[in-house]
Amino acid sequence: MDAIPSWPAFLLAVVLIAASPGPAMALVLRRAALSGFRGAVPTVLGLELGLYVWALLAAAGFAGLVAASEVAFLVLRVVGAAVLCWLGVLALRAAWRQRRAGRSGTAGAVALPRSRRGWRAGLGEGVLVQLANPKAAVFMIAFYPQFVPADRPLFATTAVLALVQVALETVLYLSLAAGVARAGAWFRRPRVRTWLEGVSGTVLVGLGLQVAVSSR
């Protein structure tokens, strides 16, 4: 730990990265608002697991190959855009169904998911969104080398730095989820839920289209 002289700069960069709007932030906010704190936990863990995998791939040189290859980057970009758009469409469909139920007078309180299937779905959603993000590959190969001293082993040092980033981001995202979940009963009102699903679905589709047209 003492061999890395730029810890303050690294920690500040991690906080700024975690606080920036993006797919991760959108997923955490949506899960916390609609499923409560427990529903957001697996999504946060999935996002951070995906981030750590990308960090290790960057240290091993694989992320650099993805970023350098036109075909690999294009495939990952298409997959990432498809995943985000798919999640957005699911949210929009949920909003449409909720709106129809409200018109027919059958809308009721939304129960929080407690099943293992819901937990696995949240974890898988987070991992998939993170691993299918082509910008993550480019970011990792540009970000971590700045904080790895020339006399330190690249892979081991990157693994430590990534572990610190994962721990810090997990605390930040779970704190955000806990804050949002406090107003969960309000978010899960049928009319508010419909509005939230529609907004989050539109945001996710927009992020997907942004990934589709983005360049390195």
TrEMBL record:
Q: Does the record's keyword annotation contain Transmembrane helix?
A: yes
What topology in the membrane does the UniProt record assign?
Multi-pass membrane protein
- Where is this chain primarily localised? membrane
Asked if the Swiss-Prot or TrEMBL record annotates the protein with the keyword Cell membrane, the reply is yes
> What are the alphabetically sorted keywords of the record?
Cell membrane, Membrane, Transmembrane, Transmembrane helix
What superkingdom heads the lineage?
Bacteria
TM stretches of this protein: 6-29, 49-68, 74-96, 153-174, 195-213
PANTHER family noted in UniProt: ARGININE EXPORTER PROTEIN ARGO (PTHR30086), ARGININE EXPORTER PROTEIN ARGO-RELATED (PTHR30086:SF20)
Give the protein name, as stated in the record: LysE family translocator
